[in-house]
């Protein structure tokens, strides 16, 4: 959705493993520090389930994080992507302030 996808196409696995959960405030404090440093890039990716089985897992994961007011932490070892957080946003939720304005070429299908 935002940012350069060049590393994502080679770094993102077929399936994301959730290694834990984290408080939203911890994520936003970290994102603000990254933005202030000016040396790191932040990418925003929208995941969409493909199969019916994916849809069920996606919905359960969304409900889990939403009900606990937590974000997910991806556990996959990636070469270029240092940290990945799974942020549950409902269809009518606004994009969190630290992520806007969006920057980059726009929508990509990976």
From TrEMBL:
Which terms under GO biological process does the entry name?
A: DNA-templated transcription
Species = Nannospalax galili
Q: InterPro entries given for it?
A: SPOC_C (IPR012921)
**Which superkingdom heads the taxonomic lineage of this protein's source?**
Eukaryota
The protein's name is Spen paralogue and orthologue SPOC C-terminal domain-containing protein
The residues covered by the Spen paralogue and orthologue SPOC C-terminal domain are 1-99
Gene Ontology cellular-component terms for this entry are: nucleus
């Amino acid at each position: 959705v935002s940012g350069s996808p060049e590393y994502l196409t080679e770094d993102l696995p077929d399936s994301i493993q959730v290694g834990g959960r984290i408080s939203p405030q911890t994520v936003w404090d970290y994102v603000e520090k990254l933005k202030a440093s000016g040396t790191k890039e932040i990418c925003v990716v929208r995941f969409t389930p493909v199969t019916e089985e994916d849809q069920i897992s996606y919905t359960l994961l969304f409900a889990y994080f939403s009900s606990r007011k937590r974000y997910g932490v991806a556990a996959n070892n990636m070469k270029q992507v240092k940290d990945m957080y799974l942020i549950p946003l409902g269809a009518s939720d606004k994009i969190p302030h630290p992520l806007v304005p969006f920057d980059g070429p726009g929508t990509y299908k990976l």
